[in-house]
Amino acid sequence: MYTMRRSRPISVIVLASSVLASCTARHDSGQRSAPQDVPAWRTRVLQDRADKDRSFATSPTSPLAGIERFTPTTAAHVAIDGDAVRMTDSATPGALVSFEPLDAQRWTWHGAMPELAATTEDGKTGLTPGEITQPVLFRLSDRFHLLARYAANTFVVTAFDRRRKEVTAFTHLAYFEPDPRFVVTAKLARFDTQPRVELATSRGLKTPYVRYGQLRFAIDGKPLSLTAFHMPGSPEGALFIPFRDATSGKASYGAARFLEAELARASADEVMLDFNAAYNPLCAYSPAWNCPLPPPENQLAVAITAGERTFGDAAH
Q1: Pick from 26, 135, 141, 147: CA 20 to 30 A from residue 289's CA?
Q2: Which residues of the chain have pLDDT under 70?
Q3: What is the per-residue DSSP string for 100-136?
Q4: Strand runs (DSSP E) across the chain, as ranges?
Q5: Phi and psi at residue 78, in whole multiples of 5°?
Q6: In terms of domains, do 50 and 81 share one?
Q7: Residue 273: beta bridge partners?
Q8: Which residues contact 205 (CB under 8 A, 6 or more apart)?
Q9: Which whole-number Å values give the CA distances from 246 to 126, 188, 190, 209, in the listed order?
């Protein structure tokens, strides 16, 4: 199954990058920090990309397979209607699974057919109808799947179609060539108050984050900075960095790209950033997703020619 990175904004999931673990930095206040063993680092980057391509092509919850995003507020019933998945507020003879609210924050599910297959995101079977306390994946047919989960305190049900043309025609994602110039050490200046803020999203909604600190670094001698955010509920030390740059809307996805980083320890004041691991938000692949957008302060004037390119760029 395709899994997204950590409970991210929408929280479906791009394979966790292990590139950072293969890099070592010179802690020189933002100067460029190339991996010591570039050939091994490059091999790791390319392997991560191949693994991600494989997941996009084969997972029933591939971001490319997303077709609908439902956010019910009352009892809802899901059925297959030809080439589509429908959700209605009244039970129909063809309903396969139903969802009912217990209160404003909790939902339950039950299947209309005893043989309805329900698993956890990581494939564990044996789930029984009842309250939804973790994401639940439903196999409606060989073609259609549902994922029920909570995202930013909202109950969301996403429908997937393995026959969506973007899935059947998929070969690989497009990337810039791995470039150690874009592996840098950033100085972290934590904000004194670290307030909770709401980032605007691709669907005109809001997603809560903690405004964590400012990352200062340099690329080719040019001083740069980005604001790092922390998503409530994600592991301590996990930083989320949405950004745009001079390639956005041209060689890379126009709305944003995302980068993640880990603090080595709670008191750390330096962070490794590898822009070769920058990835597209899920809304780049299907309108079924809801993705946070970077604030104006995270617009870089330079071209970050590293990481993922525009989806469907056949030239690379």
Answers
A1: 141
A2: 1-34, 313-316
A3: EESSSS-EEEEESSTT-EEEETT------SEE--S-E
A4: 66-70, 76-81, 84-88, 97-101, 107-111, 117-120, 130-131, 136-139, 144-151, 154-161, 183-190, 196-200, 206-219, 222-230, 238-243, 257-262, 270-274
A5: -115, 135
A6: no
A7: 184
A8: 152, 290
A9: 49, 23, 26, 25
Distance CA 291, CA 234 (A): 17
Claim to verify: residue 289 and residue 153 sit in the same structural domain: no
Residue found under tokens 């997972």: 59
So what's the pLDDT on residue 26?
33
**Residue 43, C-beta contacts closer than 8 angstroms, at least 6 positions apart:** none
Residue 106 falls inside a structural domain: yes
- Contact present, 31 and 44 (Cβ < 8 Å): no
Kindly state whether residues 138 and 284 are assigned to the same domain: no
Could you list the residue range(s) of the whole structural domain that residue 103 is in? 63-161
Q: Where are the alpha helices (DSSP H) in the chain?
A: 38-58, 165-168
What does the pLDDT look like over 6-31, one tens digit per residue? 433 333 333 333 333 333 333 333 33
pTM, rounded to two decimals:
0.86
CB-based contact 229:292 (threshold 8 Å): no
How deeply is 207 buried, as exposed, middle or buried, from its count of CB atoms within 10 A (0-12, 13-18, 19+)? Answer: buried
Q: How far apart, in whole angstroms, are the C-alpha atoms of residue 81 and residue 159?
A: 12
* pLDDT confidence of residue 314: 52
- Verify that 44 and 177 share a domain, yes or no: yes
- In angstroms, the CA 56 to CA 52 distance is 6
Task: Please check whether residues 145 and 191 belong to one and the same domain.
Answer: no
61 burial via Cβ count (<10 Å: 0-12, 13-18, 19+): buried
Does 176 reside within a domain? yes
Strand partners, 77: 88, 98
Helices (H), 113-237: 165-168
The Cα 4–Cα 11 span in angstroms is 6
Tell me the DSSP string of 46-82: HHHHHHHHHHHHH-TT-GGGEEEEE--SS-EEEEEET
Instruction: Give the whole-angstrom CA distance, residue 213 versus residue 294.
Output: 14
Amino acid at position 152, single letter: A
